[in-house]
Amino acid sequence: MFIARDGTVAYSCRATSSISCSLKLANYPMDHQHCYIRVLSYGHVAEQVTMQWFTRDPITHNHEIGLPEFQITNVSGSYCNGTYRYALTDTSHKIGNFSCLKANIFLSRSIGYNLVQSYIPTGLIVIISWVSFWIDRRAVPARVTLSFTTLISLTTLGNGLRFGLPQVSYAKAIDLWYGACMLFVFCALLEFAVVNSYMRKSEKYDHISKTFVNSQR
Prior knowledge:
The chain is of the alpha+beta class. The radius of gyration is 32 Å and the shape is elongated. The mean pLDDT is 86. The longest helix is centred in the last third of the chain and has 44 residues, at 173-216. It is 39% helix and 20% strand. A three-stranded antiparallel beta sheet has the order 3-7-4, with no helix packed on it. The protein has helices spanning 112-129, 140-162, 173-216, and strands at 2-3, 9-10, 32-40, 70-79, 82-86, 94-98, 100-109. It comes from Pristionchus mayeri.
């Protein structure tokens, strides 16, 4: 507490708290998050306690402190004044206008980890599965082995990486990526099955035509 000669009283205190933020992960890992901290009085209405930001540098933070997954893009202050209920009892309560400060923290996720651990490996597996298109259609063991190997590799990689992903009830962007990769690999296997089926039918009809031609001679 500091008391000036003109009677102005300046009081400051330090409060340490652990803050949680509900993240919206529909675009994970290319998401941008908006977290905020609200500061308001518990029992004093705006007529008793009025809160306001400093006009100069209301919020300061150490730029050398960072987060492993996020980059702090912006920190700003705003107001969240509103009407709230207080003095709650079993049969009554009071309603008053409260002064409220709101600190906005804007975060941008770093995609480097997911790029190295998820996107590049799964993309390479899909590209490897396309190699079967250039293998001779009669090389059945080679094409089947390659298709099943890439499919199993992609499934194993996806299951291992999902343990480190946030558990939410809706689909994330990376889930759609895994689904698309799985679809491409499965379509490569399906393409071989279709080609092999048409090839066997073609050989059957070719044998019938040759037999018919020889019988006409």
